[in-house]
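Try it yourself: sequence plus citrulline, in.
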Amino acid sequence: MMLQRQEMPIQVFSEISRLKRVILHRPGKELENLIPMNLERLLFDDIPYLEAAQAEHDAFARVLNENDVEVLYLEQLVAQAIDDAQVKEAFIDEWLSESGLEPGSHYAKVKEYLMAYEDTFEMVLKTMAGFTKAEIKVPHGNTLLDNINKDYPLLIDPMPSLYFTRDPFATIGNGVALNYMYSETRNRETIYGKYLFEHHPAFNNQKVPLYYFRNESTYIEGGDILVLSKDVLGIGISQRTDARSIEKIARNVFKDTSYQQVLAFMIGSNRKFMHLDTVFTMIDHDKFLIHPEIEDYLKVFAITEDGRGGIRLEEKMESLEHILEEALKLENVQLIRCGGDDPVVSAREQWNDGANALALAPGELIVYDRNIVTNQLLEDAGIKLHKIKGSELVRGRGGPRCMSMPIYRER
Ligand SMILES: NC(=O)NCCC[C@H](N)C(=O)O
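Structure, out:
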């Protein structure tokens, strides 16, 4: 296991400047605890074949490595972060307190099971995978809840969306938004972020500033947060991010960082466009990839400081190109449309994350190979593509940007 004991600064002031270090999670046994009964609640549309999903994910990591990006795995970092016995027990207690189990015999048995692991890495993987009732042989309870749930074979749900490391925490500048998530299943993922940033020696030494907190009361997810430049953030008002959270994070970044403006993109509340990065990603200094369906009703609000410790709001009425040109001080912004101008192709390729590109550098992206029309349009615009397979990965509804959390980009 690779140990990262040296200081690990966070530096993300751009969506596109050269990517140097990224956090991924290799899909694990959490996918094997997906069943039709829990799919919708756990935010999946299908059950991926684990071995194939891992092979696709390994190929994604290889492309990153081959392009000089250091790949760190969340599960390894968390295992290192909770290496100390007291921290490990605190982690297990916190994980259990949000697992849906009432304190009692099940709780005690699961805790004992986890504490018995000699290998903390394996223990972390187990917390991600969840527990079946058969694994923890506790007698069938007789509470109303036990009776209602008697046909459900899991004692503790898995966290299948963990391989979308973009969402539970998000790097901004030199700090992090540790998010409060829209759904209970994904909010459990933020526990890993909490222990990582509070306890991993490589981060702890530099005391990571937090611009959002997992105990907030309004939700925000990393897929909605775009670091457009060193001065401007873009944040989606979406199914997963509440407008109130954007005001809170804006106040925090204005106070503690160089950021001066947040553009809030209202994209509607919709499963198929759950986050801003499923419909809009930055791909070059002056080029953006957009799903045309949102252009009809997109509203953009600019949030800035009012100079008296408060914030000023302005609804922007110009074209999206113009709004971006003004905010990012660009001459001429080009929008490339996912699927081009055929609404059937656009809808299908957006569903398969055609608009969710990860920039390795300005004008150089990782994309899924399956979005043929969008990829051709990108290449025609002079964008360099690294195409990866994602037939299994895409079943969780996320693409290369969703599956990666940059820690360090060149300035
Ligand atoms: N940034 C993203 O769009 N992430 C994809 C998240 C997919 C996950 N199954 C979810 O519904 O939250």
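One thing you can check immediately is this: The CA atoms of residues 339 and 346 lie 4 Å apart.
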